[in-house]
């Protein structure tokens, strides 16, 4: 919980679900996998307790995989039994929590880091030695001024990040005219720190704008050459995205609040996004987990999009494994917010905005000290 705010919500009452799942292989080997929900959505205790955990327990035996782990797809199918299509809201978060734990467990049974298991199973053995990461933050916070924002960004640069992201659109309820003036001074101050290089700065609206405000901001920031202009509009308002994309040539980013392959496909079909520059931020932990994310990646390929255009939201190690194992464009990182769930293995440095993966079985939670302190007692 924290007093930080983006343009749409504050995080003062944010909660999270955390689960541990122990699986046993036919030959008596055991592994415990862990899962949690990514930030931006609340804990799912009711959905987990009433529907998804009982169905998972009833799923019974899961098919073994030749790598020594198992296949999580039938577990996913069991969890989604008797769920209607459409309306991909909070249940996709609950399923994502359990899916994360299942992938952690299967990689541990196989004795492989998850990135390696994914690379072997789905990417012909190819993987990236490091992932591109950027430092997200720059929230509105009571009492925090432009100098405080610049100080924060300076700390990220000192940690080894070369690209940073800040919130724009005002804190919740701030009139837009006031927000635009404030944000221009915030953006200009951070750009000064970045030697005027707009390709090192992303800005995030968290879906607050309608078309008029999105276009006004677009016109005001167009000349900065920013890395990307994120979630300017409601994530489900595809045709308005298409209109914005006609008027704003630099990169747009969106997708963190689209929770299924089908929603992602609608964005690709109707959102006017451009496969040569725009960024897709679907967060596997919020959107039914990796089983569904694999379907999303297949859909993207079928529509001419490279996985390199994907930079998941969330800043968790699950997406980081997916990024390196499946060749995504990188992953978000929150060096100062959303602890202990965000971040990387302890002691692994970020160099030139890239980070290496630890060579330990599973997702790597055991080597992230602050997170492991929470998980180990489950
Ligand atoms: O503030 C949030 O909800 C997080 C967010 O948008 C992001 O990480 O891009
Ligand atoms: Mg965002």
UniProtKB/TrEMBL annotation:
SMART domains in UniProt: MR_MLE (SM00922)
Domain Mandelate racemase/muconate lactonizing enzyme C-terminal: 146-251
SUPFAM superfamilies, per the entry: Enolase C-terminal domain-like, Enolase N-terminal domain-like
Name the record gives this protein: Enolase C-terminal domain-like protein
């Amino acid at each position: 919980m924290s007093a930080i705010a983006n343009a749409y919500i504050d995080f003062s009452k944010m909660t999270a679900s955390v689960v541990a799942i122990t699986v046993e292989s036919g030959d008596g080997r055991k592994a415990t996998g862990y899962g949690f929900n990514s930030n931006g959505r609340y804990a799912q205790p009711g959905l987990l307790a009433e529907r998804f955990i009982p169905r998972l327990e009833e799923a019974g035996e899961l098919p073994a995989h030749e790598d020594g782990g198992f296949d999580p797809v039938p577990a996913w199918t069991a969890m989604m039994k008797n769920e209607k299509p459409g309306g991909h809201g909070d249940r996709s978060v609950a399923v994502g929590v359990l899916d994360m734990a299942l992938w952690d467990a299967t990689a541990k049974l196989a004795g492989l880091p998850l990135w390696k298991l994914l690379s072997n199973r789905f990417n012909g053995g190819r993987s990236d030695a490091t992932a591109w990461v950027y430092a997200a933050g720059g929230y509105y916070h009571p009492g925090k001024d432009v100098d405080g924002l610049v100080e924060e960004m300076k700390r990220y640069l000192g940690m080894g990040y070369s690209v940073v992201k800040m919130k724009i659109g005002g804190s919740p309820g701030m009139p837009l005219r006031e927000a635009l003036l404030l944000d221009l001074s915030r953006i200009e101050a951070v750009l000064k720190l970045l030697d005027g290089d707009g390709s090192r700065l992303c800005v995030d609206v968290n879906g607050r704008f309608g078309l008029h405000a999105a276009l006004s901001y677009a016109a005001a920031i167009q000349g900065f050459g920013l890395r990307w202009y994120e979630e300017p509009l409601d994530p489900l308002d595809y045709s308005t995205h298409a209109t914005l994309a006609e008027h704003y040539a630099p990169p747009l980013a969106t997708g963190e609040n689209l929770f299924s392959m089908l929603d992602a496909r609608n964005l690709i079909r109707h959102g006017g996004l451009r496969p040569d520059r725009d960024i897709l931020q679907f967060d596997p932990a919020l959107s039914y987990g990796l089983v569904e994310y694999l379907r999303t990646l297949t859909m993207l390929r079928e529509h001419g999009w490279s996985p390199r255009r994907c930079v998941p939201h969330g800043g968790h190690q699950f997406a980081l494994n997916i990024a390196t194992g499946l060749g995504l464009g990188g992953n978000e990182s929150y060096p100062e917010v959303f602890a202990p769930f965000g971040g990387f293995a302890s002691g692994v440095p970020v160099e030139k905005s890239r980070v290496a993966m630890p060579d330990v079985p599973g997702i790597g939670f055991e080597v992230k000290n602050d997170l492991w302190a929470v998980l180990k007692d489950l």
